Amino acid sequence: MKASVIGASGYGGIELIRLLSNHPDFELQAIYSSSKENVPVTEDYPHLAEICPLPLTKIDPVAIKETSDVVFLAVPSGIATELAPQLAGGHAKVVDLSGDLRLKETDDYKKWYKKEPADRAFIADAVYGLTEWNRENVKTAKVLSNPGCFPTAALLGLAPVVKNNLIDMKNIVIDAKSGVSGAGRGLSPLVHFAEMNDNFRIYKVNEHQHIPEIEQQLAWWNKDTAPITFSTHLLPVSRGIMATMYAPLTSAMTTEEVYALYVETYKNDPFVRVRPSKQFPGIKEVAGSNFCDISVDVDTRTNRLVIVSVIDNLVKGAAGQAIQNANLMFNFDEASGLKGFPMYP
Ligand SMILES: NC(=O)C1=CN([C@@H]2O[C@H](COP(=O)(O)OP(=O)(O)OC[C@H]3O[C@@H](n4cnc5c(N)ncnc54)[C@H](OP(=O)(O)O)[C@@H]3O)[C@@H](O)[C@H]2O)C=CC1
Ligand SMILES: CC(=O)N[C@@H](CCC(=O)OP(=O)(O)O)C(=O)O
Question: From which domain of life does this come (predicted)?
Answer without folding.
Answer: Bacteria
